[in-house]
Amino acid sequence: MDYLIAPFLIRLIYWVGFIAIIGAGCGILFNALDASVPGNARISLTIGATLLSLLLWRLLSEILVLAFNLHARLIEIRDLLSHRQDATEEEQSVPPPLFLLKKPAPPFDDRGTA
After folding, report:
1. 89 vs 83, 94, 101, CA distance in Å?
2. What is the pLDDT of residues 63-73, one digit of tens each?
């Protein structure tokens, strides 16, 4: 069983969290707009905090997905190496060509001269 369900679940949880962060940011923003104390700082801080939260949520989700993608790549490498090992074993079982089996002629004749 080389298929993992966790990357799908992480992506699903990411989108649920993304919607929740946007909803919370909008709720806080509308609350800031209705506040009796006027201030652009409250609105800009709310928008900044929402964007920062979205960025951190995305980074966390990508780190989790990256761990599972590494697992998938390691499985691919394992399969490639096992295929390569099978191929080298097949090559070793094939006898070498005949020209490699012939003994080379000695460089000297019987008298020891070239």
Report:
1. 10, 9, 20
2. 998 888 888 78
